[in-house]
Design brief:
- By secondary structure, the protein is of the alpha+beta class.
- It is about 25% helix and about 25% strand.
- It is globular, with a radius of gyration of 22 Å.
- It has two domains: about 30-235, Jelly Rolls (Sandwich), CATH 2.60.120; about 240-410, Jelly Rolls.
Length: about 400
């Protein structure tokens, strides 16, 4: 049997070739202006693409049927997407307002958990002329439940129902436009454990049907839009549309409006701010924030806004893992080599990137100050009592990080 013997051969071949053309188009964006021409950055642009190529058809086909839902990690230590932040895990499940779902799980010890029902994806961001972000993003939060609101038994086990008849607790309503669950979990101290979750449709009794040629062709189109969209829209989409992102021409400082703090952000359970940084080999950047209540996270990202190598490098800090100075200020240092400062953020050799701030469990906006200084003079610009570490202590910190991240993802 050969090509042309099947009734749908030409349609499938055409759809596949179109996807390959879209993939080729996506690769061209690795050379965009936002991605510096240094070889390390060019390679990272293609890595951003290939990491997400690996999940394109998981999202487009394998987990897509809302009658047979699956919870899917769409960021991991080897897959970065959507301005993900180290010390978060991100999961999603395609759902439909037509069905009722039962989630069973066991609450871990992670400090924060938020499960959100996402609604219809508008063509444009409401109130603007900007197009919505590429799939699987762009939809509007409809309802959410925090980990602190879940009722569990003594061992942390729980059931959560999504859709269907209203329940007095452990229930999330849906609408006819509901289309996915977003599950974000955030970790503070090393050793915190993840929440284990599984989902099923109530009444699911038969095997999932096999994919039809029509569904395969649709998946080729979805995946083509996905890989092209992520390469085309990151990071420029966030520059244009988010009040918490600084003008890319004003590097090394946070924006004057530092809090993405809308009603939708409240359902997402966080406030956010982003700084775009550029650092020469002989420079260091000091970021200062007066300590405040709540649960905050700083995480480094590359030019495409995906998180840096948080499995192997100190690219993120939270309250439990940060040293505060005696004046009540948290000071972080970005530099290309280890200055021995406890709160060091490793640029992993990149000249450009993003520093993302998340504020959870508090509505108090932070105040940031930044100073770009010569690397050779760094210690002259830091308090005398700045917490320092030895090379041996840094090695132990990296081992702790490595083991804790693997625990979060079951690696």
């Amino acid at each position: 049997m050969a090509f042309g013997d099947g009734a749908v051969d030409a349609d499938l071949k055409g759809a596949w070739e179109h996807f390959c053309d879209r993939l080729k188009e996506a690769g061209a964006y690795a050379f965009k202006d936002a991605n510096p021409p240094a070889p390390l950055h060019r390679a990272d642009g293609f890595r951003f693409l290939t990491q997400n190529l690996g999940q394109a058809f998981d999202l487009a086909l394998e987990t897509r049927n809302p009658a047979y839902p699956q919870i899917h990690y769409f960021t991991t230590p080897t897959m970065k997407l959507g301005a993900d932040v180290a010390d978060f895990t991100y999961r999603q499940a395609w759902i439909s307002g037509e069905h009722t779902y039962r989630i069973t799980g066991r609450r871990g010890t992670a400090r924060w958990l938020n499960i959100t029902v996402q609604g219809p994806k508008p063509e444009k961001i409401p109130g603007t002329d900007f197009p919505s972000l590429h799939e699987p993003f762009g939809d509007i939060p409809e309802a959410n439940i925090l980990g602190s609101q879940l009722e569990t038994d003594a061992d942390g086990n729980f059931e959560l129902f999504v859709g269907g008849d209203e329940r007095s607790s452990n229930w999330l309503p849906t609408t006819p436009g509901s289309r996915k669950l977003f599950i974000r979990e955030a970790f503070d101290a090393w050793g915190e454990t993840p929440t284990h979750l599984t989902i099923e449709r109530v009444g699911m009794a038969e095997p999932r049907p096999m994919a039809t040629p029509e569904q395969m062709i649709e998946a080729f189109g979805w995946a083509g839009d996905f890989v092209t969209g992520l390469m085309q829209q990151w990071p420029e989409h966030s520059w244009l549309t988010s009040g918490g992102v600084c003008d890319p021409q004003q590097r090394n400082q946070f924006p004057a409006d530092k809090a993405a703090n809308t009603a939708d952000d409240a359902k997402r359970g966080r406030m956010a701010a982003h700084m775009i940084w550029r650092l020469q080999r002989d420079e260091a950047l000091i970021v200062e924030m007066p300590f405040h209540d709540g649960f905050w996270i700083f995480g480094l990202g590359g030019p495409f806004a995906g998180s840096m190598d948080f499995l192997h490098r100190p690219t993120s800090y939270t309250p439990a893992r940060t040293r505060m100075d005696s004046d009540g200020v948290v000071r972080l240092v970005l530099s290309h080599d280890d200055p021995g400062v406890h709160n060091w953020l490793d640029t992993q050799g990149f000249s450009d990137g993003n520093l993302t701030y998340r504020n959870l469990m508090s509505r108090n906006p932070a105040t940031f100050r930044t100073r770009l200084v010569p690397r050779a003079e760094l210690m002259e610009h830091l308090p005398a009592e700045t917490a320092m570490v030895t090379p041996e202590e840094r090695e132990e910190m990296l081992r702790e990080r490595y083991r804790a991240i693997k625990l979060r993802f079951g690696l």
